[in-house]
Design goal:
- The chain has 359 residues and is an alpha/beta fold.
- The protein has 2 domains: 2-74, no CATH class; 82-350, 3-Layer(aba) Sandwich (Rossmann fold), CATH 3.40.50.
- It has helices at residues 2-14, 22-37, 42-50, 56-74, 89-97, 157-171, 229-250, 278-285, 298-308, 330-350; strands at 82-85, 121-123, 132-138, 144-150, 175-184, 194-195, 199-202, 206-211, 215-220, 224-226, 263-264, 267-270, 291-295, 314-323.
- The strands form 2 sheets. Strands 1, 2, 3, 4, 5, 6, 7, 10, 11, 12, 13 and 14 form a 12-stranded mixed beta sheet that branches. The protein has a two-stranded antiparallel ribbon with strand order 8-9.
- β2 and β3 form a beta hairpin.
- The longest helix has 22 residues, at 229-250.
- Mean pLDDT is 79; it is low at 101-117.
């Protein structure tokens, strides 16, 4: 409500009464309340308010103003329940934004018109070049949770650490989730399998030394961080059920029925370069017998949680296997992104282990 009043003040100060009469202005404020509750979108309001303008030039100015104040009305002003991060805008973030179906036992979301099916609304924060999206999704007990999602402008640990830290300090979420794609270890995983690692380590940290016999050698000293143990235990117990829901949802379109999607909760390696070498991948796999996959951002998210908000926020990584270190194809990346997004948001809707701080 505070943000709606702030938006109302902007309207009163910037829109002369001669151009926007009290009646239309009152309707705009009512519309802001409806946006706040998720009934309509900013585009709906633009069309309605701009129609009250008396000339084309002012119509344009009203459109710009309306977009600004409606964004102000829907921007999360305080803590949110969950933040979902991805490394890639496409296909990873786009699959999160396209998510619109939930199999919660008590409630299903209504389909909403707007940016995407779930009603994701774009917004930005002052002095923040990264764009974000905000939506509400139903929880297993019938309540709703507020979710913010976004993606940094580049892949890798440094951009993701910045994005995760901004999210943690701005919204203090109960949980932060990294989802998207990863390379799986051949023989342990199949494409489409879900990786929910309890342990993440950096495989290329250590010290370079000169070896007279073999040339420069990296003496590995892996940095390691752990995911939230209670969430991992819950996913060990319920992951197969959620994977079955996801698989049933994708049969005939995204997935085939030839095998079940498996959930792996062992180790995940994180590095600073894209992996497309079978020999290099084998060398990393040899360093840890419990390794199930490799990617580039998981360590950054869990490390940010550990050192920014360990008492307030739980962190978990939910990735899907798109390849086995070589032969990266768009079709498989799209499919794995879909699986990861479906699994992550399904988990958020039904988890009983997450310490939701708001009723």
């Amino acid at each position: 409500m505070r943000d709606v009043r702030k938006a109302a003040e902007v309207v009163r100060n910037r829109v002369p009464s001669a151009h926007l009469a009290p009646g239309p202005r009152s309707k705009l404020l009512q519309a802001l309340e409806r946006i706040r509750s998720g009934d309509v979108t900013a585009t709906d309001i633009v069309n309605k308010v701009a129609a009250t303008a008396r000339d084309a030039e002012f119509r344009s100015s009203v459109e710009r103003l309306t977009l600004a104040v409606t964004e102000m009305a829907v921007r999360p002003s305080g803590p949110v329940d969950a933040v979902v991060l991805t490394a890639l805008r496409d296909p990873e973030l786009s699959e999160v934004l396209a998510w619109d179906t939930i199999s919660s036992p008590t409630k299903k979301p209504a389909r909403k018109e707007g940016l995407d099916e779930l009603g994701w609304i774009p917004f930005s924060n002052a002095d923040d070049l990264q764009g974000w999206y905000h939506a509400r999704i139903p929880r297993w007990d019938g309540a709703e949770i507020q979710v913010v999602c976004g993606s940094p402008d580049q892949m890798g640990m440094v951009p993701m650490a910045v994005a995760a830290t901004k999210a943690l300090t701005t919204w203090s979420p109960s949980i932060i989730v990294l989802c998207g794609i990863a390379a799986g270890v051949q023989g342990k995983t199949n494409t489409g399998d879900i990786l929910v690692p309890e342990r993440v380590f950096v495989h290329d940290s250590g010290k370079w030394i000169d070896d007279s016999a073999h040339g420069p050698q990296l003496v590995r000293d892996p940095w390691t961080v752990m995911a939230d143990s209670s969430l991992i235990q819950e996913l060990k117990n319920t992951g197969a059920e959620i994977a079955g829901i996801v698989q049933a949802r994708g049969l005939g379109t995204v997935l085939s029925a030839h095998r079940k999607l498996a959930v792996h909760t062992q180790a995940l390696a994180c590095g600073n370069a894209v992996m497309d070498s079978e020999e290099a991948f084998r060398a990393i796999v040899a360093t840890d017998r419990k390794l199930t996959g490799l990617e580039m951002e998981a360590f950054a998210v869990l490390y940010a949680v550990r050192w920014t908000a360990p008492r307030l926020t739980s962190g978990v990584v939910i990735k899907a296997v798109s390849d086995h270190g070589v032969g990266k194809e768009d079709e498989y990346q799209q499919r794995a992104s879909w699986i990861s997004a479906q699994f992550a948001l399904e988990y958020l809707s039904r988890s009983r282990a997450i310490n939701w701080r708001r009723p």
